[in-house]
Every structure is written in structure tokens, then in C-alpha cells.
Amino acid sequence: MVDVTDAPAPAAQSLYAGLRVTLTDPQNGSAGVLTVAGKDRLNPWDDWSFIVPTMRVPAPTPITSNVEAIKRIIATLQTLIDQGNDL
User: Which domain holds residue 35?
Assistant: First the structure.
């Protein structure tokens, strides 16, 4: 009999071979545009496909750093998940 507590955990597999998230920097203080695209894991040579619709992201100020851009991207994706979108 095998003790399951000693068994290694199965490795998680991504649905995508690649994930690309872009956020435009609004120069006029209006809104940025966020896109999320992925490549099929089973056929990584396929073109990028949008996972969620392109959306406007409130951005009252220009993005001043990569960290700020990442924080805005994460906050937007979390909002989508909270609204029931399946990423």
C-alpha cells in the first residue's frame, strides 16, 4: 500500500502555451486599453486569440512605472474574475 502523503503532487498544466497582456498608457488621463490573449497549449503555432474582450481601464493619470502598470493589470483581471468571467 502506498502512503499518499509521500506521493508528489501532480504538476499543474496551463491551458495556454503563452499568455500576453497589454495595457496602453493613456497620455491624456482618460482610459487605457487592456487586452488579454493566449496561445492554445495543444497547438502553440496558432495565432494569439483574445481570452476576454478588449476593455477600457480607468486611468486618471499616466502610468509612470512597470510596477504601476502590473498593479493596474492585476486589479483589472481580478475585477473580471470577481464578475464571473472565466479566464
Answer: 4-82
Grid coordinates representing 29?
Answer: 488621463
| 87 within domain boundaries | no
pLDDT digits (tens, 9 = 90+) for 77-86: 888 788 876 5
Q: How confident is the model over 1-41, as pLDDT tens digits?
A: 445 456 566 666 667 777 788 888 766 667 778 888 888 87
Which residue in the block uniquely carries the three cell numbers 496551463? 14
Number of separate domains in the chain: 1
Nearest in space to 85 (alpha carbons), one of 39, 48, 51, 58:
51
Q: Give the neighbor-by-neighbor strand order of the sheet with 31-40.
A: 16-23, 31-40, 49-58
Q: Phi and psi (nearest 5°) for 24?
A: -75, 150
